[in-house]
């Protein structure tokens, strides 16, 4: 799905002058780098980076974004606000049916993803929030560095805690969100739209 030029500008990441991403390496190449450094070896092992660990062919996307979740300690027991990004019907539904976020509470965005091959770094999540077509917020978060999980299990990343707006004005209208996950090379792993509203209760 291509976006108008002004929307692409909104989704542009923050850049650091002079920064150039390093050339991509395979899991085995990373595993054999500085092999004599024990502390580095332990860190790489925690990412699943060990010699011979890469059995899957390096094809297809490096990252599969599975779901996005809004997490909060104020959510009622058993309630979960989870968007399954692998379900086309659910994606179409969340674009039309706003998620309700309780006013004045702490919450955070949690992203669940799977690393298919290679080592990821420089992968980030950006969301732009608009109300009545006017940008009111932009969040940019790095996922961190990960290798394919040895057991093929997904990873979860909790982003910084935010406080939802409150008051009658905040409860009026719908907030439209554009979310994107991509890397330093410009490869987009997920790009979707959803919306939320502010309510007195979840």
UniProtKB/TrEMBL annotation:
State where composition is biased (Basic and acidic residues). Answer: 150-159
Annotated organism of origin: Ganoderma sinense ZZ0214-1
Quote the subcellular location field of this record.
Answer: Cytoplasm
Q: Where is this region: Disordered?
A: 1-24, 145-167
Q: Which UniProt keywords apply?
A: Cytoplasm
Report what the protein is called. Answer: Rho GDP-dissociation inhibitor
One MF annotation (Gene Ontology) recorded for this entry: Rho GDP-dissociation inhibitor activity
Family from the record: Belongs to the Rho GDI family.
